[in-house]
């Protein structure tokens, strides 16, 4: 009996097999800086501080699963198939075998997943958790009127026990949605602009209460400690100090463009890995922005795509506050790749499952 495999499935499986090899070999060829987080997770004593927070919970997870005791190559052999299986369950678009920009972004995503989740990683946990959202939107058992609310609660809960900045995402997403209801000429651009303003307002409010603005107390603090490090060639430094209201405003706007439309990054012409990320990021942002504009024109048909994009752009705005460098920004985007994948191919499998 002849086994027939669809072209899109064959490409999906081919990418999986090729990048599984990459994931397994990664621990033998990548420079040490790629493993700083993994080493921190493995060495962290979660019992000393509880399991709330990204490092304590990650250490707890990798301890109880036994993965922290395994060589990184074996961890990759276990984690990478799980990740790709999640994408498989979300769906394989019927045009996945065709060469176009959107598919190129996802093909590259398979490779970046292999690099960043080939070891104990907070992004593995984030990936698995965030992948819940597409299945919430798919589910026939959850009433439609509750799906968006439930998704925002899921995101907020992740902020409570793992990554605190995720708490900002529902707030900004709801604010951006409100702006899309106003009769602006360019609703997509206006919603992102006012989403940035909302993020700035939140940061300045935190500064009044705690004495330090959000980017001042996170990104700037981290970068100050490694300013002259050889591994800090892509750090994001605001043009002016962020210890004033106008400095923080500039810092957040600058950070948003630095991690999402990083044209300035082309100065790293002799760092090809940075140039590749820049191209990938600019193309991704452009395609998602175009899709955002399209779904705003037909909210009913693209209801869940609209909210997926609102969550993604809210995340991009939050990255502009906290990300210390381009490399970290890339790694963190892999954590939300299930939403990126779902948003890019929404129309192909939105009625399936």
Instruction: Let me know the number of strands.
Output: 0
Our estimate of the beta-strand percent is: under 5%
Catalogue the unreliable spans.
Answer: none
The ordered H/E elements are HHHHHHHHHHHHHHHHH
Q: Can you tell me about this structure?
A:
The protein is mostly helical and 353 residues long. The chain starts with 6 loop residues before the first helix and ends with a helix. Helix 9 packs across helix 14 (303-322), helix 10 (187-210) crosses helix 14 and helix 12 crosses helix 14. The chain has helices at 7-29, 36-43, 54-64, 72-90, 101-116, 122-130, 132-138, 144-161, 168-180, 187-210, 219-225, 245-260, 272-296, 303-322, 326-335, 337-344, 346-349. Helices cover 67% and strands 0% of the residues.
What are the salient characteristics of this protein?
353 residues, mainly alpha, 17 helices
Topology at a glance:
Blueprint: H1 7-29, H2 36-43, H3 54-64, H4 72-90, H5 101-116, H6 122-130, H7 132-138, H8 144-161, H9 168-180, H10 187-210, H11 219-225, H12 245-260, H13 272-296, H14 303-322, H15 326-335, H16 337-344, H17 346-349
């Amino acid at each position: 009996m002849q086994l027939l495999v669809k072209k899109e499935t064959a490409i999906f499986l081919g990418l999986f097999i090729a990048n599984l090899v990459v994931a397994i070999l990664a621990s033998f060829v990548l420079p040490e800086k790629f493993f700083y987080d993994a080493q921190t997770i493995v060495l962290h004593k979660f019992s000393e501080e509880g399991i709330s927070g990204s490092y304590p919970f990650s250490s707890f997870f990798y301890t109880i699963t036994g993965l922290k005791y395994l060589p990184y190559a074996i961890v990759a052999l276990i984690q990478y198939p799980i990740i790709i299986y999640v994408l498989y369950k979300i769906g394989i678009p019927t045009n996945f075998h065709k060469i176009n920009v959107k598919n190129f972004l996802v093909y590259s995503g398979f490779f970046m997943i292999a690099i960043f989740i080939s070891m104990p990683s907070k992004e593995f946990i984030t990936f698995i958790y965030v992948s819940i959202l597409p299945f919430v939107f798919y589910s026939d058992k959850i009433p439609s009127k509750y799906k968006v609310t439930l998704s925002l609660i899921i995101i907020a809960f992740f902020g409570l026990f793992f990554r605190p900045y995720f708490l900002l995402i529902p707030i900004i997403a709801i604010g951006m949605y409100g702006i899309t209801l106003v009769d602006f000429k360019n609703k997509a651009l206006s919603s992102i602009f006012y989403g940035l303003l909302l993020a700035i307002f939140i940061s300045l409010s935190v500064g009044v209460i705690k004495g330090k603005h959000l980017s001042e107390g996170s990104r700037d603090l981290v970068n100050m400690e490694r300013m002259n490090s050889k591994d800090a060639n892509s750090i994001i430094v605001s043009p002016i100090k962020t210890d004033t209201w106008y400095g923080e405003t500039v810092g957040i706007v600058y950070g948003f463009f630095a991690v999402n439309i990083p044209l300035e990054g082309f100065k790293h012409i002799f760092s090809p890995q940075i140039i590749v990320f820049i191209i990938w990021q600019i193309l991704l942002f452009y395609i998602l922005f175009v899709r955002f504009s399209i779904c705003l024109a037909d909210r009913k048909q693209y209801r869940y795509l609209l909210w997926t994009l609102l969550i993604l752009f809210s995340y991009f705005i939050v990255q502009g506050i906290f990300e210390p460098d381009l490399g970290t920004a890339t790694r963190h985007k892999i954590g939300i790749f299930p939403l990126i994948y779902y948003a890019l191919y929404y129309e192909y499998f939105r009625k399936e499952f």
